[in-house]
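Let's practice the habit of predicting before peeking. Look at the sequence and jot down your guess about where helices and strands might fall. Then scroll down.
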Amino acid sequence: MSQTPGGVFVRRAEFDDSASIQALVGDDAAVMAKRFGAFDVTTMIETATLGITAVDEKGAVVGYAAFFDYPALTPGVDAAAWPSWLHANFGHPEYTPATASWLAFFVADALCQNEVAESILRTAFTTLSEADAILFALPQDVRAFAPVRDTFEPLQCLKPDAVDVKVHACHRGLYLPDLLIREARVEDHDDLVPVFNAQSEVLTERYGEFFIAELIERQDPSNVALVAEVDGHAIGLLALSSEIDVQLLKATFDLDPYAGLEREDEAALAAATDDALAAAAIALARRAAAPPPSKVAVREPTSRHEVFELQRGALSQFPTDRRGAVRTLASLWTDGSFLSTRVKEERASLAAWRAEREAFSRGQGLRNELVRAFNERRERRGDAARRREMGHEHRLRLWKVEDDAALALQNAWRARAIRHAEAETDKALEATTLLARRVKEYGHSSGRTADTERERLAKQGRLRRMKARSSARGVNDKQTAEESAAKAAAAAAAKAAAEAKRAEAAVDPKLAWTHGKGFSEVRQSLEAGLGSLIEGLLKGQLPPVSELRESDDEGELLE
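Done guessing? Here is the structure:
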């Protein structure tokens, strides 16, 4: 963990930081998704080339950044072909996978976002030592946000109509100085002395005050000194030498894992190995191709020097007669010669046959080994083919199971949607039926109530008029009869008005909107309201059934 002057510490991102990073995103998840695309913090921590977390003095996470070798969260850019895409649309052929890295995600606390960005980018350039620039892609409709717009420069797009993203670049020189590597000069002594003294004073005490200058001055083809220069000042020294005492190193260190720092002539060793393998292959081929010998021993002719020779002292046993002795000697010589020749010939033929059979047996063993090796190789190939076939069948079964599961899910969702649609249709039909029934009931009841009330009032009027006429007939005085008739008519009219008011008060309040209208007008109003309701149902504007059931004002519902 490293600390920056602003009190922000940076370290490698860990899985335990996931919850804190998600908390930093908070309610800005939609904004982050618009900037960086679809992201998952846990996946980024696991797969990022470099993930850096920034924390404060109390250890609380205040920032996070993820770096990749490609534009990870930009779906419009191919991860493998991004260099050609970048060069074709933005130029800058110097940006390659070896010299550039991509910032895929960045989030920080608003109170310290500038310090977090500076610390993270400085650490990224320090860790990614080969990266000369860090690139960052944004959609065309998203403006660069702080602190990215302060450190990243936009690249000019060569084909604005062909791409839907814009690319920004941050160069290493903004955070780390560029190093110039060159051969050391004696003049670099004054710059290098403070560097060496700051790390150790033993070198000066052991080798003298000017040992650096002496080391640089003694350069030759076998001893080279290099320095790193920044702003015209040497800040580092590297001394190299090819004069190495390998035996001293072997005596001082364990160099067995490194082959004693020695290397054999690989070309000669490879040539010798190839020659030995070729000779062995030729010998094996000759032994394997030798024809089989005969199973019956073949007699070979015997040369002249193998004929039987008479042993010394044999003539002393012959008779003294010269003729008899010569005949005997000739007979012995002839019989012994042929017998000895035949025995030697048989022995020689048997020995040659045994040698040939033994050689064939050894060759037959080699043939058997070759056949066995060929059969084993063929069996291994067959086993590999069977394993591949079984793996293919297993994958096919897995794919079938996945397809069946996907089909089952689709059927389940389709059935759920159908049930939901049927339920909505049932509700609409129920509401329509209930409304039609109520409209019909109210229409009939209102018509019957109005007709009954009119008949009752007409009957009462006829009765009053009959009473008035009968009363008038019994009065002898015409004036009295007229006054009585007038009074009776007035009383009847007042009573009829009172009865009409009581009948009006007794009518259902739900039908109050029908007062003063005839039956045909009421029916036309109900039909117009029902038509409007059905049209609303067809458009999907269905009032809840509870309102249809609980509504006390049918006139309002129809309107």
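How did you do? Residues 300-323, 545-559 have pLDDT under 50 and may be disordered.
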